[in-house]
Amino acid sequence: MHRGSAGDHAFAWGDRAAFHLNPAGNVLTYGFNATGDAAARRVLCDTVLSSVSLLRGYELLHAAAVTRA
Fold it and tell me: Which residue among 30, 43, 59, 63 has the highest number of C-beta atoms inside a 10 angstrom radius?
């Protein structure tokens, strides 16, 4: 992840996917090199969206981190 001088954030996953969060933190744009790239979608869902949530002040918990009493 790289922070731009305007306060935006750019994420890249090699040459397979690119993601951009605007300076306000409310619009995430992305592009995949290959249509239907399941691995790139997984990176979006588990890495990029988690990072965006943290940048916005939210901490996500995975269901595996929760135990039933």
Answer: 43
Hey, CA dihedral for 4, 6, 7, 13, is it positive or negative? negative
Per residue in 21-37, pLDDT (tens digit) is 999 999 999 999 999 99
Cα 51 to Cα 45: distance, rounded to the nearest angstrom = 10
Distances (CA, A) of 17 to 30, 40, 62: 7, 6, 24
CA 34 – CA 37 distance, rounded (Å)? 6
**Quick one: DSSP state of residue 33?**
S
